[in-house]
Amino acid sequence: MAMEYTEQVLDHFMNPRNVGEIEDASGVGTVGNAKCGDIMKMYIKVENDVIVDVKFKTFGCGAAIATSSRATEMVKGLTLDEALKITNKAVADSLGGLPPVKMHCSVLAEEALHAAIQDYKDKLERGENPDAGEEIKYV
Ligand code: FES
Fold it and tell me: Using a 6 Å CB cutoff, which residues line ligand 1?
């Protein structure tokens, strides 16, 4: 039996948004999906606690690509705390839902985003300046 994907899922799969890398990313998260072994990498650029840019790359299926694409749209412009509240279910719902057997694919984006935010926070704690976009002025 063929799986039913919504038009929104197909659109994000065919025209994924925010694919790529951010060279001077504030945080990078790489995760693997325990169910299928697929991989996701997410890059975030943070300024004043707000995600000003986000990009992803994945060795994942169409559902993973579509949900990651949508997730990047949803978190851009949010504060880190707001972004952490975006669940994989909220992303899937915003695409009109996923077939139940593909719900695990949407977890990749959520986990990669959380890992990228953690990476950013770890860098802050280590005293590094992950906001590489900021100019450091010596006076
Ligand atoms: Fe692995 Fe979808 S089957 S992410």
Answer: 33, 36, 38, 60-61, 63-64, 105, 108
